[in-house]
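ok so I'm stuck.
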Amino acid sequence: MTTTQKKNTTQKTLVIFDLDGTLIDSAPDLAAAINRMYAKLSLPDMPIETIKSWVGNGSLKLVERALAAHGIEANKLDEAHEIFLGEYAACSTDATVAYDGVSLGIAQLQAAGFQLAICTNKPARYLPEILAHFGWQTAFDVVLGGDALALKKPDPAPLLHICEKLGVAPDAAIMVGDSKNDILAGQAAGMMTLALRYGYNYGEPIDQMHPDAAFDDFDALTDYLLMMAPIKA
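replied:
not stuck anymore, here's the structure
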């Protein structure tokens, strides 16, 4: 772990998590859906590591990057996006796994008195099935998809929306993510930001975004959060 700065000493009561690359490794299923989309467009596959570098700004941007990689013009975007959405719906939990320590960590943070939320740029239509797949249906007080509001991360609007919905001041919330979109959104919202190094950040070290702390695994993150718990577990 590395720590940079503490934003304030306000008691933290809410932890907002990103989803892809933070709680779950969904890259295999996202890549499968992109490659199935390619097949329907008579385009060659791309490797998973390449597709992983495109994840983080929502499904439309993912497909836009996928088309650009083959030099396909933007006028094909809507058609390709619809194909992708259908393909991903058919495989969204086939090979997706939770990162080590996530389910236990979520339970520990709940027991310690934190409110928990998810703020993802993934379309909302996929979230109920994914949460049910991991048994997390009741773990989060708010689950906000990337198409729920007009703006998505790195804009702070989704994070502020969650705070308003739960009646929590932004400086009492913590944003946890793997991408610069998460850290930029949290910083702009006036929240503490915590980063995980194992996710998807366009091939860039997440420490370069200067989160308040960064961790190599979820267990270390959980231990750090428990030190700030509203009540002791």
